[in-house]
Amino acid sequence: MTTMKTTTTPAVGGGDVRLTGISKRYGTFTAVHPLDLTVPQGSFFALLGASGCGKTTTLRMIAGLEEPTRGTVHLGDQDVTRLPPYRRPVNTVFQSYALFPHLDVYENVAFGLRRRGIKNVRRQVEEMLELVQLGGQARRKPHQLSGGQQQRVAVARALINHPRVLLLDEPLGALDLKLRRQMQLELKRIQTEVGITFIHVTHDQEEAMTMADTVAVMNAGRIEQLGTPTDLYDNPRTAFVAGFLGTSNLVPARVTARSGEDIVLTAGGATLVLPAARCTVPAPAGAAVLAGIRPEKITLTHVDDAAGIPEGRNRITGRIADAGFIGVSTQYVVDSPVCPGFEVYAQNIDRDRRLVPGAEVVAHWNPAHTFGLDADRDGDAGPAHAEEEAA
Ligand code: ATP
């Protein structure tokens, strides 16, 4: 468990946030299907998903701003399901900041303490301002601050109440990209410093992956997959997750045989190898699977040099349909009978000048990077690029 370093430390302890069978219906519409979720104390947890997937509703049920249709919310041993928001040891930071415009930064941060009748607030307010690095802005009014600074005031104002859990509802949504990136690091630093549980709602996969220890990917009111950012990225269990976190090529394939620890697949005339341990479904001979591969794991070789490709690599032959230069890398689209619109990202180190639209190429990769998904569940959309489905 992380301990807090500030002396105005919000309370340590109190345990995990535990949702048990929690659901939310609005009339006949189910916004959140029954879900069980434990957020370990002290973790930075992200609920990630597209607009309307139910992440804010889930957060609001933890805050007490929304009453669950079924299920319970526990904070540590305490069942808080029926407690009003102000009686829960939880504070929420919203995208809109909701600062008091007529109060300066200092008084905005002091507000929670003054409301509780605490007279001597100076030391705590100053420490909070230091924590969010706004010590020099104490006498400014909110309109004299940048968006990022206002957001930091909102965080300080919430943390001074010593919540056990800080809920963040798209807190960086109103900021431009550069500021968002700065604030992502800033929020992560603050969380590490205070050591309390942060639960963060976002639709931005990069934001979730940058900050959170654990990410729950939500889709249509359900948690589709939960894990560390690297685990979700490397081992997506559904096409939705594969496409929501980055880009994936999903090649429709059929199982031909099992070879030791590997599954041998055929896809439009190509033979591909998939590690059995990375296949999310049972794959007997004849079964349909989607063979997934991330674009950055693939190398493109001009067909004239194909003889030099090492043995044992998965390979797909095709023609470059598009090549987009984006500085650090070039993003190729390769059309092949195996998989139209196959994406390959190549770092611009020693660029082969022959790799231009129209060129015939072999796309090849280490089979160990291949993952296998359920074609029956995920194959209907049949996209080569799962992010189209996720969008
Ligand atoms: P966003 O990122 O757009 O806020 P979200 O994933 O947070 O999306 P929610 O706000 O949790 O989604 O909403 C989930 C679903 O529940 C949506 O389809 C929404 O329209 C619906 N919903 C939310 N609040 C209500 C309500 N008070 N009455 C009826 N439907 C609602």
Topology:
Blueprint lengths: L16 E10 L2 E11 L4 E6 L5 H9 L6 E6 L2 E2 L10 E5 L10 H11 L6 H10 L15 H13 L5 E5 L7 H18 L2 E6 L2 H7 L2 E6 L2 E6 L1 H6 L4 H6 L4 E11 L2 E6 L2 E6 L12 E6 L5 E4 L11 E12 L3 E7 L6 E6 L12 E6 L5 E4 H4 L7 H5 L1
Parallel strand pairs: 3-8, 3-9, 6-7, 7-8
Antiparallel strand pairs: 1-2, 1-4, 4-5, 9-10, 11-12, 11-14, 12-13, 14-20, 15-19, 16-17, 16-19, 17-18
Helix pairs in contact: 2-4, 3-4
Mean pLDDT comes to 89
| Rg from alpha-carbon coordinates | 25 Å
Question: How many domains?
Answer: 2
SSE run: EEEHEEEHHHEHEHEEHHEEEEEEEEEEHH
Helix tally equals: 10
Global shape: elongated
Main pleated-sheet profile:
6 strands, mixed
The unreliable regions are 1-13, 380-391
Give me the CATH architecture of the largest domain, please: 3-Layer(aba) Sandwich
Describe this structure in words.
- It comes from Streptomyces thermoviolaceus subsp. thermoviolaceus.
- It catalyses: ATP + H2O + polyamine-[polyamine-binding protein]Side 1 = ADP + phosphate + polyamineSide 2 + [polyamine-binding protein]Side 1.
- Residues 372-391 are annotated as: Disordered.
- Keywords: ATP-binding, Cell membrane, Membrane, Nucleotide-binding, Translocase, Transport.
- The chain has 10 helices and 20 strands.
- The protein is an alpha+beta fold and 391 residues long.
- It folds into 2 domains: 17-234, Rossmann fold; 245-381, Beta Barrel (OB fold (Dihydrolipoamide Acetyltransferase, E2P)).
- The strands form 4 sheets. Strands 6-7-8-3-9-10 form a 6-stranded mixed sheet, sandwiched between helices. A 5-stranded antiparallel sheet has the order 13-12-11-14-20.
- A hairpin with a 2-residue loop joins strand 4 (70-75) and strand 5 (78-79).
- The longest helix has 18 residues, at 177-194.
- It starts with 16 loop residues before the first strand and ends with a helix.
- Mean pLDDT is 89; it is low at 1-13 and 380-391.
- It binds adenosine-5'-triphosphate.
- Adenosine-5'-triphosphate is lined by residues 26, 29, 31, 49, 51-57, 203.
